[in-house]
Amino acid sequence: MSNLPACEYEPKPYDGPSKEEVIQLRGEFLTPALVTYYKEPIMIVDGHMQYLFDETGKRYLDGFAGIVSVSAGHCHPRVMEAVNLQNSRLQHTTTIYLHPNIAKFAQKLAGTLPENLNCVYFTNSGSEANDLAILMARAYTKNYDVIALRNGYHGGSQGAMGLTAHSSWKYSVPHGFGVHHTVVPDRYRGHFGYDDSGSGEAYAKDVLDIIQRGSSGSIAAFIAEPMQGVGGVIEMPPNYLRDSYKYVRDAGGICISDEVQTGFGRTGEHFWGFENHDVVPDMVVMAKGIGNGCPLAAVVTTKEIAQSLTEAIHFNTFGGNPVSCAQGLASLEVILDDDMQGNSKRLGGKLFAGLHDLQKKYECIGDVRGKGLMVGVELIEDENKTPATLLTANVFETCKDLGLIIGKGGYFGNVLRIKPPMCLTELDIDFMLDVLDEAFAQETS
Ligand code: PMP
Fold first, then answer.
1. Interval between CA 194 and ligand 1 midpoint (Å)
2. What is the dihedral of CA 419, 421, 422, 425, to 10 degrees?
3. What tens digit of pLDDT does each residue of 413-441 get?
4. Domains of the chain (ranges, CATH numbers)
5. d(CA 58, CA 389)
6. 230 CA to middle of ligand 1, Å?
7. Using one digit for the tens of pLDDT, what is the confidence trace for 384-412?
8. Which of 60, 144, 244, 272 is most buried, judged by most C-beta within 10 A?
9. Is 51 helix (H, G, I), strand (E, B) or coil?
10. Atom of ligand 1 nearest to the CA of 259
11. Ligand 1 atom at minimal distance to the Cα of residue 157
């Protein structure tokens, strides 16, 4: 039985309503559309860096970061100091008055991107940011057709749901006007094999085909996650984005990189996911990790494209709020100053090495993929790659019992997703691998 690495932080004793009372209140007063993880849901009431605590004080290693959001660590002291200070001075006025936080944060954020991507619009969620990105793309290009990827996830608002292409996340209502979904370059399950040479180019040909034979021929935008997150950690193959961007730009469109999960150093090698592909998008959408857990998102584009939004007034009441910007700025400073990207690279390397060892030991591990601290482990039943959905749920559940929280995803729910706060340590990775080993041993015996 593996033990969690030591932690000096002691959570305060919990004196709120019991878990049973909270379950009852949720059932009575909250929408039945809310879902919870685990057969018996857990209640998390405290967090410190890479660790979470339930109401009994039980500690967990957080391998999912509030769904890839708490990039720098739960209640990181530097982030909390900045946000508490701002909370005590001024919470909200909107952008109709000047405030330094939004300006300072935009400057710092632009500093992480290629030079021409220097015009920021803050929103509160990734869905809103994607809606705005498509609006700007259409306003700028005067074109209507949008290309998104199958198996992609871009949010749950009506516009973003139209970009999303996963039946689990879509309702049978009108949405996605003008959106065409191209083939997902899934090297593990797709048509062109795992071979890196040529599969990217082959998949990108479907983008060209949609432009030529599936649309008006004039494109407003192409949107893709450099590595699909919700879809089960599917990384775009080499040259896929390069070729797709070219086809789209030739058809008058702009290229949008949805970095909601891949940004802020998570992929280790680079700060932004698109940088792994030698392309420069015209627009970058960011959320989740940008705010280390607060409602904050942004679209960053060129001055020229952003100008298109001045045709009318586009207003977002809380976008760029002083408190969110204090939190975003402090989180970005911590990520940069503490070299969390370097941590992602180093610890991701260790995690991948350990996972590849587990893959040799357990036949059910069909694929280990991702980059840095954005990791997917796809579980299969047999050589036909039949998705091992039940086994995945069981491993996931056992990990939790052993003190490790991770995520799962992919259309069949057979991909374990590991995306921890980027502040974790080697000892945490050792613990994570021990727990996974134990969970696989238990569930496959
Ligand atoms: N894009 C991507 C890639 C995402 O993973 C998500 C959220 N899972 C979104 C957009 C939507 O973000 P939000 O939930 O903040 O609206």
1. 27
2. -100
3. 999 999 999 999 999 999 999 999 999 99
4. 19-68+339-444 (3.90.1150.10), 77-337 (3.40.640.10)
5. 28
6. 9
7. 999 999 999 999 999 999 999 999 999 99
8. 244
9. strand
10. 3
11. 16
